[in-house]
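Homework-ish question, so no full write-ups if that breaks the rules, but can someone show me the predicted structure for this set?
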Amino acid sequence: MAERAALEELVRLQGERVRGLKQQKASAEQIEEEVAKLLKLKAQLGPDEGKQKFVLKTPKETLTGKYGEDSKLIYDLKDQGGELLSLRYDLTVPFARYLAMNKLTNIKRYHIAKVYRRDNPAMTRGRYREFYQCDFDIAGQFDPMIPDAECLEIMCEILRSLQIGDFLVKVNDRRILDGMFAICGVPDSKFRTICSSVDKLDKVSWEEVKNEMVGEKGLAPEVADHIGDYVQQHGGISLVEQLLQDPELSQNKQALEGLGDLKLLFEYLTLFGIADKISFDLSLARGLDYYTGVIYEAVLLQTPVQAGEEPLGVGSVAAGGRYDGLVGMFDPKGRKVPCVGLSIGVERIFSIVEQRLEATEEKVRTTETQVLVASAQKKLLEERLKLVSELWNAGIKAELLYKKNPKLLNQLQYCEEAGIPLVAIIGEQELKDGVIKLRSVASREEVDVPREDLVEEIKRRTSQPFCIC
Amino acid sequence: MAERAALEELVRLQGERVRGLKQQKASAEQIEEEVAKLLKLKAQLGPDEGKQKFVLKTPKGTRDYSPRQMAVREKVFDVIISCFKRHGAEVIDTPVFELKETLTGKYGEDSKLIYDLKDQGGELLSLRYDLTVPFARYLAMNKLTNIKRYHIAKVYRRDNPAMTRGRYREFYQCDFDIAGQFDPMIPDAECLEIMCEILRSLQIGDFLVKVNDRRILDGMFAICGVPDSKFRTICSSVDKLDKVSWEEVKNEMVGEKGLAPEVADHIGDYVQQHGGISLVEQLLQDPELSQNKQALEGLGDLKLLFEYLTLFGIADKISFDLSLARGLDYYTGVIYEAVLLQTPVQAGEEPLGVGSVAAGGRYDGLVGMFDPKGRKVPCVGLSIGVERIFSIVEQRLEAELLYKKNPKLLNQLQYCEEAGIPLVAIIGEQELKDGVIKLRSVASREEVDVPREDLVEEIKRRTSQPFCIC
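A: Not a homework solution, just the prediction itself:
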């Protein structure tokens, strides 16, 4: 590590040397010599340093502008002589590219696919380099806040249906944040970095956040305090109305726009019947640069340990917001297509659901097979093959063991392990009588069913709730 | 416009000037001066010039899927997945990239078509080329001895895509495989049954499944006198028989690949044959072929296979075809390929195959290549050519709230017609007073007032009818 730091310092010094020579207009030879030394040093650091990063075929600055400093986490493909390619980092930028490319002015679409980030994955925290994103977006110029409200409704619907516990959706607005920082006296240049400090309020105390802003980021203490007066507030539509009356905030045009839109949003959310799940939270200041209006984040609430305690959020399971400027960055004529959307954090939800299943020891079936075609005696493979294909042709999910003469016990065990509820047993006597013995794996009851009624009987039994076969 | 053209010409000339000076190793001062002039000229052209031109496109050989294409895709996958599930398959997923070393050495000369990831300081990675090698890696890694699984995912090949023929660099593969040591040919027969079931359910026309066996091919080449070293290349010539005539294939083998003409003729006697179980039995009696141990094994297995296929009721769709010699090196036993049949132009003409829509075979040695102890896990499987099926289906084919506070009813009805929405629930002031919603069928234009509390029930009832005769 120390070695690397020393190397990096050498690179820095040599870079300065080269710059100095160029400034002094030293001879081209000398400059070339020192540049060569610089490249050698950089090469020792490893292939990451010094190379131009290309992403898709767009100007470097366009995409750097989307992902900010996360750009270094993009996977590039090797230059094999053709176009320079990279793996997608999210689904939003591809969506904007798709809209611009097809000159679409409106669409309501979802997209579920994997995305790729060269994170340093802390596996235990469920951070992977390849993971699913699950996006829903509405693009188009519409009357204000209706699609935004629907996005929030969808988020609530999904989280409710997944039954992973109680949740809360925090809502804020980029313009309110920016307006608030402006009236508090935050210098423009510090906006983004103060944003990221404020965003930590869901995990750490105000004291710590203030210390970071003042101590590390050089914000004046009184400015920090002023921010503190606002960002520690959260509430419902009444907070929106209160801030609309705030003497300072109401002087700021941006903040007023944001507050006005949030008021309208809350009215729609009330009509949707979900206003009780929504909290206007001034500390919500999510990372991505491309949000332009409302932003929201859903968190699961941990059950309070003691009655009377407020529930703690334990991490985001969904998030989103409005981003009106992104498509315009792709369109050659800069045509804007306003967008609002949400992303469900499915990987987190997968782990929660998996944890729950383990805890309840509920058996999860990995197949949907309804009946195993079996035989108790030897030389009945032919009959099993005939019967199983009859069942497949009737649309029944059926299997057979790939053995010419399997033992009945093994076949029954296979059913128990796989959770197959029924066994259709072929026997010589039964064949003569024109029946199949249908056995319920759970109850172990057997009944002889005429061959021509078998399909019907299996369908009847498997269509019952919880397949009490 | 002329002004711009003149400016562009000046930029071009100045650029050449700078290049010239650099070549002549003129002084840094002079170069800097001319570069500054160049930049000034470029700036005059306006903000478009001088900036990287960016083209809005997907990478070569790839495409976006529009909502309409996704609808087709979803329907096709539905049919396929239902079939896999009907046969008791589990599903797995693997990462889109594998360690480069995992993929090395598995694809023969196709290896040059593999996409590598840039070396960014970590593991060397490549995008998966198919789903079979990841499957083998998964089995070996998890020490599994048997599994029946399907896997539907995109794979990546740096082909030179002839777009019109539907060859992409990123495309879906749809695999089903049975791994494990079982009694012979039962899983192999089930794979063929699944292929037939799927192609039937997709209703894309009549099809034929050609079947052959690696051991029969190898045995046949041996008795015909093909040198070992030419086996693979003669294989690929023979494989073309489905597209070109025997004359052309023979010319290629003799003229380009240096095969003795009598050897080629001998091959020709065999590879132009195709038929059912009777051909298998005939070849089992063939004086030469029956002397070859490999060929005998292959023929014996095919005989058993045909018996099982007859019990499954699909033998009429299967053709034992000695010219089937599919590319991949890892097949070890039975191989098969399904082709769609074009309707004959004139009665009496034999239907022509127009391209493969599914294929597969047995590959017993692959997992052993991954297992540290070389433990073998026999596998047999199939792959559905969904991209071809998508284009075929695409070719055949062609309740909501509008985000306007006061939309025109006509616009809303038009929206329904365009999107194929069958019902409209119309809210009106009088109806609100009466506690009803006007439910309108888009197709029939009939409207009926439904009490608000019955609306959900009524919509569910109507939409559950077949073909939604709403």
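Now go work out the reasoning yourself. Hint: Residues 48-53, 398-405 of chain B have pLDDT under 50 and may be disordered.
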